[in-house]
Amino acid sequence: MSFRIGFIGGWGHHYLRGLLQPGGSPVEIEAAVGADGHDNAAARKWAEANGVSRWFDDPDQLMEQFEPDAVSIGSIYGCNSDLAVMALERGIPVVCDKPVAGTWQQLDRLTELAKKKPCILLTEFDFRAKPEFRAAHQAVANGEIGQPILVTAQKSYRFGTRPPWYSDRSQYTGTLLWIASHGVDAIGWVTGCKPVRVVGHQGNLSRPDYGSMEDHLSCLFALENGGTAVVHADFLRPAAAATHGDDRLRVAGSLGVVEVRNERCILITRDQGEMDITDRCKGVRPMHLELLAALKGDTTWFSTAASLETARVLLHARDAADGQCWVDL
Fold this sequence. Notes:
The protein is of the alpha/beta class. The chain contains 9 helices and 15 strands. The chain folds into 2 domains: 3-123, NAD(P)-binding Rossmann-like Domain (Rossmann fold, 3-Layer(aba) Sandwich), CATH 3.40.50.720; 130-284, Dihydrodipicolinate Reductase, domain 2 (2-Layer Sandwich). It is 30% helix and 25% strand.
């Protein structure tokens, strides 16, 4: 029996595309691509690049005629939520790139729809499917660093070439919701400690031609256990850097420290020096299979509740950074 996936839009990651590769799926996949009504040319280009020949001129047409078992949404970031709502109103499960909500009004509508069962809304936070971050989660859960006290998360990217709509907050939604969101999401699921207050600062010093787009930001979170978390992100990674991104996570606890850097997870305890523990989780399923499992209810790493909770924290954090004031979560 085949599984039908409708891909909407030509931006974002569309991690479910991994199912389209030879040997990439345990089940037969039928795929179609739909225009998103915002940048249809990008969606058409994505369809051609990924070898999907079945095309629909708008998302309504795709949902009504193709009748997908799930949709993958990767549109202009501020439009993701409206497309997700269209699918959820029809009872179609959604896999969506960040952000799933760019405004409080969008989040309210998604939350309302989530009360109807069944409802599946999964956000593409790929840290959750990477062995190094999974190993950090496991080390904390096992008590190897004791009580988590100070968390630091980093996302740093080359700027490269970005589309003009990055300069429009309503379409881009902000660097916090786009790239720093990975670090914000990691706070709770790696440590098990929810953030309860946040303050932030952000700005654009290196790309004035991109208007309100932030080239850097930092948020400080107070955690429910009395600990502290810092999330920072930037588009300041030099073009000559060996990799496009530099993702890091450090959790300092009462008994040790666990760090993710250079795609490895390093543990230090009171009794032992640096240990590379990444391979503890070398059997982690790739992102597309993890998302497929979540659509079928076979994993807890991705869920509707986690998607909505992280979206809520992100909007509060953006408010705090915009206002440069403390906001209670």
